TrEMBL record:
It is found in: Membrane. The keyword Membrane applies. Keywords: Ion transport, Membrane, Transmembrane, Transmembrane helix, Transport. This is Cation:proton antiporter. The chain crosses the membrane at residues 65-91, 111-132, 139-158, 178-197, 204-225, 245-278, 290-309, 321-349, 361-380, 386-404. It holds the Pfam family Na_H_Exchanger. The keyword Ion transport applies.
């Protein structure tokens, strides 16, 4: 990029960032008052400032911002928000508690992925042909749709649980741990489907490389990364906590860069760094409070806001698209909540907690938007189906807070499986 181009884009970029922060704050306050938590308003920010609303109502003001909307710098800034939010989630996770119910996490998470995946695959095989692209085989499309419907958005789930003051509860810790597991499985499935779309066949070697890389990273984090973090924190003389804050952010960004370079979701690296710091005793309260305020007040809203900037929800006014979108939403919701609830009930969880985990994991939010964007760029999703998947991501996230708030009233703070 030339310096002239960069200078020409900078004012629009700065204006757009300012608008994202202000609108996210305003919409977050509105949705919080409506009982939907702040993250729902933050997710809606991108749609308000994108072509869906701003571009239609005030095109003369939106058009000058269009280059900034599409800028790589904005995407990188939103990625930083994702990294910091997942680091915060790892920092506040009770590692020993999560380890104690690892079997439950794997069982519930696996069923919670398999059921909506099966529903999505079956639905993808019968969707009207005019909603598909001409270049992608129907089976590849169906596999991609199934993958997009089986994932959970851990950044949204974390933010909702924090807003509902349920993150530190046993229920919250179980839900976050299961969400992270389903997130990892979902990204592995996505890598498989994308590989099939690119080469026209299942590349087992590529899948094996991803699995080995992921295993190597996790083992390295546990045995080497923990020692490094322990050694650094033990030698850090930092009365006001600023040094801890700098080390935490640097480690989070570095860990995310490492996983990204290895072909793994960067959020996993950030979450792992947070866990390492939690196991090492965390950071001083003052530094933790600053980190939380910075993350939840500035960077997380940017991440959620940017996620919807490129979506045009106006396509949902097409009657056929609206019907398919409604069916997709029902299939995704029933598959996720039903699968998770059945698995949790089978393991002995009481009714409210089993249903509550299903409701929590049904939030797909910005992660499904990212997956949909990949599908659009690869030509797997048509513009219409891209809009459908985006709508499902937003609506599942919007319905989660009120439903989860009601269910939480029947869950004991220290509930354990029978």
């Amino acid at each position: 990029m030339s310096s002239a181009t960069a200078l020409g884009t900078t004012p629009q970029f700065l204006v757009l960032v300012a608008l994202l922060l202000v609108v996210a704050r305003a919409l977050g306050s509105v949705t919080e008052r409506l009982g939907l938590t702040r993250v729902v308003g933050e997710l809606g920010t991108g749609f308000v400032l994108g072509p869906s609303v701003f571009g239609r109502l005030l095109p003369s003001m939106y058009d000058p911002l269009a280059p900034a909307v599409a800028s790589t710098l904005l995407s990188d800034l939103s990625l930083l928000g994702l990294v910091l939010l997942l680091t915060l989630a790892g920092l506040e996770t009770d590692v020993e508690l999560v380890r104690s119910y690892a079997r439950d996490v794997i069982t519930i998470g696996s069923v919670g992925v398999a059921v909506p995946f099966a529903f999505g695959l079956a639905f993808g095989l019968v969707i009207p042909a005019f909603l598909l692209t001409d270049t992608t085989p129907r089976l590849v499309f169906a596999l991609f749709l199934a993958t997009s419907l089986c994932i959970s958005a851990i950044p949204v789930i974390v933010r909702i649980l924090i807003d509902l003051e349920a993150f530190d509860s046993t229920f919250g810790q179980r839900t976050v741990a299961t969400a992270m597991y389903t997130d990892v499985v979902g990204w592995l499935l996505l890598s498989v489907v994308v590989g099939v779309a690119r080469v026209g066949r299942l590349d087992l070697r590529a899948v094996g490389v991803v699995v080995l890389t992921l295993s190597g990273f996790l083992l390295g984090a546990v045995f080497l990364g923990q020692r490094v973090v322990d050694a650094i924190l033990a030698r850090l003389d930092d009365a006001d906590g600023r040094g801890h804050l700098v080390i935490l952010v640097a480690a989070a960004v570095g860990g995310s860069a490492l996983t990204y370079a290895a072909g793994i979701e960067p959020a996993l690296g950030a979450f792992a760094v947070g866990l390492l710091f939690a196991r090492a005793g965390g950071i001083p309260d003052r530094a933790r409070a600053t980190f939380e305020q910075m993350t939840l007040g500035v960077f997380a809203p940017l991440f959620f806001g940017v996620a919807g900037l490129n979506a045009d929800l106006g396509l949902l006014f097409d009657p056929t698209v609206a019907v398919v979108g409604t069916a997709t939403l029902v299939i995704a919701t029933v598959g996720k909540i039903g699968g998770v609830s059945l698995a949790a009930s089978w393991l002995g969880y009481d009714g409210p907690e089993a249903v509550g985990m299903g409701i929590g994991l049904n939030a797909r939010g910005a992660i499904e938007i990212v997956v949909a964007t990949v599908g659009l760029e690869l030509g797997i999703l048509s513009t219409r189906m891209y809009t459908v998947v985006i709508a499902v991501a937003v609506l599942t996230s919007a319905m989660t807070p009120p439903l989860l708030r009601r269910v939480l009233q029947g869950i004991s703070g220290d509930s354990t499986p029978r």
